[in-house]
Amino acid sequence: MKIGVALSGGKDSSLAAARLVREGHQVVGYHLLLSPERYSAIPPSVQAGKVREIGERLGIEIRFIDGREAFRREVMDAFAAAYRAGETPNPCVLCNRLFKFGLLFETAEAEGCRKLATGHYARTEDGVRPRLLKPIPPCRDETYFLFAIPPGRLDRLLFPLGGIPPEDIRKLSRELLPGFLPPPVSQEACFLSRTGLRRFLEDSLPRPEEPGEIVDVSGTVLGEHPGCHFYTVGQRKGLSSASGKRGPLYVIRVVPESNRVVVGEKSDLRARRFRAVSPNWLSIPPPDDPITAWTKIRYTHPEAESRITPREDGSLEIEFTSPQEAPTPGQAAVFYRHDVLLGGAWIKTVDG
Question: pTM for this structure?
Fold first, then answer.
């Protein structure tokens, strides 16, 4: 079978390609050119070099897809706009939908590939409506970042590493890619280094003419800040001018209209309800009535029992059984039932 593989130059996507080659498939590697050099954690030229190395090792064709202009418009501009609106964006989910499972998928399909594979730790299950499942075991579960995949494409996706235990992953890597040294894994958005976020925001968003106010939940002014777009819900850093002897403070809310940052104690971050928009139901049809599911509000946040109620305007109301820490506008809320990812949506407003 002719299979396209999304190759980043990293270990996981390279190992996925190597496994498919060993199984006898005709593999074509596709690498997306997306990130500008100025902000990147890993220089794009280094990533491209690693992709070429994998192509030579495996004896497969490598194709490069230039998506930089669209990436700047669809992901980076949207990223800046979210901060401008007082939200905390999740560009990885958006990039997956628009580029890995959008532009790259369409290119591979147009060139005769029957499936597209990636190195994500996830699984699919065939059926009348294919389902996205957590990997086995779920210790490196990456399904959270995949909730926005167009449902009609799930049956043409492969995740070759999703059913392999971690100890066997290491063994397989030594066997199929001996001596391969991938670039370090990015801990931030793929197009930003640790210092790149502030530089990107400074380049993309105008600094206010005057400092903004840091206020507590009752509205009392505690200090000043250089611009509310440098703050996100749950943040502790950058609040020294307001802390005094009050103990640790956390960002509770960002109000761009007044350039205010609202801070409080950790307990003030907890909320039971929020509204989410633009839902994508991946493994089940869109529900007409309320359903019970386990909701994850950040990649690192544990799932929590919740009731999900569709609203007439197409949004969702999510109510947890118990309050959760820092549901954050701009982040993804992803819904599970056991190992199945049902779907997800974008957190818009938090009701408390």
Answer: 0.92
Catalytic residue among 92, 113, 190, 228: 190
Residue 190 annotated in active site: yes
Per-residue tokens: 115: 């499936």
Orientation of helix 196-204 relative to helix 77-84, angle to 10° = 80
CA-CA distance, 184 to 181, in Å (whole number)? 9
C-alpha to C-alpha distances, 218 to 124, 262, 271, nearest whole angstrom = 48, 9, 17
**DSSP 8-state code for residue 150:** -
What burial letters (b/e) apply to 204-214, b meaning 16+ CB within 10 Å? Answer: ebeeeeeebbb
- β-strand pairing of 270-281 with 260-264: unpaired
Per-residue pLDDT tens over the stretch 235-290: 988 776 666 656 789 999 999 999 999 999 999 999 999 999 999 999 999 999 99
Catalytic residue among 92, 95, 113, 228: 95
